[in-house]
């Protein structure tokens, strides 16, 4: 089941343009993450696909069928909201069975389908509990089972883990990813958490101010950002302006990504902290720096450095090296640029 969005836009009565001419295609069976800051348009696009918001312009296709004129119940879409939206007066079984009862399915069909879904979401034995008797993670799994009850052809998840703590969030996204792969259901996952998007998705769509900035695999988004915004929003980056002459910047010789290096014009060089390598100081080193501070972050040390012309840069280094560094220590550096952007 594929999704195609053509020139989609949405403006509200106050004149605010939430989505501006967005177009993309998503493949069958993929988990796609909509990523971006608040106000980027990702939830509005999700709601238009679901039929909960009417587009101001553009077209939406599901498996080649145009659906933007259809009511939500005719699109065969399951939606999981961030606030669970469970019926408090219904127990777990009845919450999951709700859509099946609306469809007037036979009692034996409802019984079998609900029990199968509760097994899939690891809630068997909790059929008789009410939402206020469940943990946050359990409530979210009930919401997911209910969204899957009518066998939707598309699953939409709107920041479904925002109400749970960090450790449970990590467990739930791994669990949802496995369930999505097992069911092979095309899914869209809205999040503002870059790590969540990179971990859970086959492809990531980055939005900003109602426009699509980039679409690609997690690796493409992280390693080959198309715009300065994507580079800065996804992961941590160092950036500085420089002019490249004969392949050399004013900081010294950098390792550049494949492709042409702009010669003689001002550019913004993007460097990820893990691409800054520290070595023992040498007077002959091409790039030298002074350690300003080190911060232990569990898997690595974050090292803040000052280079030539008071340029500040951050490196992520292994624990064995980071723990041995001292403030004001002089070091040599090798730097690999992630991306070069021309200054507009």
From TrEMBL:
SUPFAM superfamilies for the chain: MOP-like, P-loop containing nucleoside triphosphate hydrolases
EC number: 7.6.2.9
Pfam families: ABC_tran, TOBE_2
Keyword Transport: yes
Matches recorded under InterPro entries: AAA+_ATPase, ABC_SmlMolc_Importer, ABC_transporter-like_ATP-bd, ABC_transporter-like_CS, Mo/tungstate-bd_C_term_dom, P-loop_NTPase, Transp-assoc_OB_typ2
Keyword flag Iron-sulfur: no
Origin: domain of life: Bacteria
Gene3D superfamilies to which the protein is assigned, alphabetical: P-loop containing nucleotide triphosphate hydrolases (3.40.50.300)
A GO MF label: ABC-type quaternary ammonium compound transporting activity
Domain ABC transporter: 3-234
GO CC term, one of those recorded: ATP-binding cassette (ABC) transporter complex
Name listed for the protein in its UniProt record: ABC-type quaternary amine transporter
Lineage: Bacteria, Bacillati, Bacillota, Clostridia, Eubacteriales
């Amino acid at each position: 089941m594929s999704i195609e969005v053509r020139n989609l836009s949405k403006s509200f009565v106050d004149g605010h343009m939430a989505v501006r001419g967005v177009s993309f295609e998503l493949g069958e069976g993929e988990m796609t993450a909509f990523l971006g800051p608040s106000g980027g348009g990702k939830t509005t696009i999700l709601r238009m696909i679901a039929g909960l918001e009417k587009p101001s312009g553009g077209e939406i296709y599901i498996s080649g069928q145009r659906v933007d004129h259809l009511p939500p119940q005719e699109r065969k879409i399951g939606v999981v909201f961030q606030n669970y939206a469970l019926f408090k007066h219904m127990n777990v079984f009845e919450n999951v069975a709700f859509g099946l009862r609306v469809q007037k399915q036979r009692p034996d069909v409802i019984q079998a389908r609900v029990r199968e879904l509760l097994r899939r979401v690891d809630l068997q034995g909790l059929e008789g509990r009410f939402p206020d008797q469940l943990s946050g993670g359990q409530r979210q799994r009930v919401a997911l089972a209910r969204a899957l009850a009518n066998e939707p052809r598309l699953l939409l998840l709107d920041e479904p883990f925002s109400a749970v703590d960090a450790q449970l969030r990590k467990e739930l996204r791994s669990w949802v990813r496995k369930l999505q792969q097992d069911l092979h259901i095309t899914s869209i996952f809205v999040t503002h958490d870059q790590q969540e998007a990179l971990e859970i998705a086959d492809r990531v769509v980055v939005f900003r101010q109602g426009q699509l900035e980039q679409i690609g695999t997690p690796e493409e988004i992280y390693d080959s950002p198309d715009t300065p915004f994507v580079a800065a929003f996804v992961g941590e980056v160092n950036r500085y302006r420089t002019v490249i002459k004969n392949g050399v910047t004013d900081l010294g010789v950098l390792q550049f990504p494949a492709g042409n290096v702009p010669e003689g014009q001002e550019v913004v060089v993007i460097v990820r902290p893990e691409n800054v390598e520290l070595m023992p100081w040498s007077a002959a080193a091409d790039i030298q720096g002074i350690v300003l501070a080190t911060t232990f972050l569990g898997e690595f040390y974050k090292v803040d450095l000052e280079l030539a012309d008071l340029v500040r840069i951050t490196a992520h280094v292994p624990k064995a090296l980071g723990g041995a560094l001292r403030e004001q220590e002089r070091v040599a550096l090798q730097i690999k640029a992630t991306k070069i952007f021309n200054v507009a």
